[in-house]
Write a structure and sequence with these properties.
Structural class of chain B: mainly alpha
Strand content of chain B: under 5%
Shape of chain A: elongated
Mean pLDDT of chain A: 86
Largest interface: A-B, 44 and 44 residues
Number of helices of chain A: 9
Distance between the termini of chain A: 34 Å
Number of helices of chain B: 6
Order of helices and strands of chain A: HHEEHEHHHEEEHHH
Number of strands of chain A: 6
Low-confidence stretches of chain B: 17-23
Helix content of chain A: 40-55%
Number of strands of chain B: 0
Radius of gyration of chain B: 20 Å
Low-confidence stretches of chain A: 8-23
Largest sheet of chain B: none
Largest sheet of chain A: 6 strands, mixed
Shape of chain B: globular
Order of helices and strands of chain B: HHHHHH
Helix content of chain B: over 70%
Structural class of chain A: alpha/beta
Radius of gyration of chain A: 21 Å
Distance between the termini of chain B: 60 Å
Oligomer: heterodimer
Mean pLDDT of chain B: 85
């Protein structure tokens, strides 16, 4: 019986949790007017020092946007097509008129992302990994319909103190060394995308396939 | 025994609560598409694994009569094309076109381009 009460309690939390009071929303009327069904994600402009960042970022953008209910043009195929047209770099692609890109692919909207930060700062014993992206969506007629900036930071905290300072220091040094060898930007990037498209106050409205599910 | 069942349900509910809001209900199954794409960018030799992984996933979805997530047929098609198999590429682009009307413009031009390449007997750069 005790469990049953707890369960009902939890169930209530589960059922109401997601529908929490919305924070002050930005004006999405331009987005709603354009009502895009399909989004073309083009390779990003890279302002970080990591040359691989745009490709890695590209691999994270499809799933959250498609799960939001849009048709997302296959990003690797789009990249291939752009390369066939002679466009290899984000800068070059972002300079093209959005109308031209949208027309080339038959897309309703184009998503442009600029990587502002994608770095690991090494302090004495901890490492802070940071990503920051500017997102901008433009309709096929060239109107900007949505924009947002999102940054995410991770620095390993030594929360589970052993009570022995030396042991803690070694543990921290090991975790910093691992991060230093291969800082993992993907979880941070996925979180940034999740916040910006789905969870945050400036999230984009649902697309047609998500609406059809409701 | 009954308590044990309740405990399990309770744990499941807690799990749902902790993950439910972040992932919501998924529209599609991706079969590890994003992770495989990431790996293939990280190490271009993994393109073969990417292709095989997508082949398996698409076959599984088709066998279960489930809709294949947007873009996956086309991505598989492009991997075939880059491996020099224009026929399989066109088959995949055609499936993408049929599954997702939004893709028609792009798929038509890709299919036309493959046809042109084939008549020109051009080597496809991988």
């Amino acid at each position: 019986m005790k469990y049953l009460n707890l369960m009902v309690c939890l169930l209530t939390v589960v059922l109401t949790g997601c529908a929490s009071a919305p924070a002050a929303k930005k004006d999405l009327s331009a987005f709603n007017t354009a009502a895009p069904r399909s989004i073309l994600v083009v390779p990003a402009i890279n302002k970080s020092l990591d040359v691989d960042a745009p490709n890695y970022l590209l691999s994270t953008l499809t799933v959250p946007l498609a799960e939001k209910g849009f048709y997302v043009f296959p990003v690797n195929t789009a990249k291939f097509v752009l390369e066939q047209e002679g466009f290899y770099e984000g800068e070059q692609i972002h300079q093209q008129p959005p109308e031209t890109l949208a027309h080339l692919f038959g897309a309703d909207a184009v998503l442009y992302v600029t990587i502002q930060r994608w770095d690991a700062k090494y302090a004495l014993i901890t490492t802070t990994v940071t990503v920051e992206f500017d997102y901008r969506m433009v309709a096929k007629d060239g109107t900007e319909i949505w924009k947002a900036t999102q940054s995410m930071q991770y620095s390993p905290q030594n929360n589970n103190s052993s009570g022995n300072p030396l042991v803690d220091l070694i543990a921290t040094a090991i975790s910093a060394a691992i991060t230093r060898a291969a800082p993992n930007y993907l979880p941070l990037t996925q979180q940034a995308n999740q916040v910006v498209f789905v969870l945050g106050p400036n999230a984009i409205p649902n697309g047609p396939y998500r609406k059809a599910q409701q | 025994m009954k308590n044990l069942h309740l405990k399990i349900i309770l744990m499941a509910l807690l799990g749902l609560f902790l993950t439910g809001c972040a992932t919501r209900s998924g529209l599609y199954q991706w079969g590890g598409y994003d992770a495989m794409l990431y790996q293939s960018y990280k190490n271009p030799e993994k393109a073969v694994e990417f292709r095989q992984g997508l082949e398996l996933h698409v076959a599984k979805m088709e066998a279960a009569n489930q809709k294949v997530a947007p873009g996956l047929y086309a991505e598989l098609g492009t991997l075939y094309l880059q491996a020099g198999d224009g026929t399989k590429a066109v088959a995949m682009y055609t499936k993408e076109r049929e599954a997702w009307p939004e893709s028609r413009g792009l798929m038509d031009s890709l299919i036309n381009n493959v046809a042109k390449r084939n008549t020109a007997k051009a080597e496809v750069k991988s």
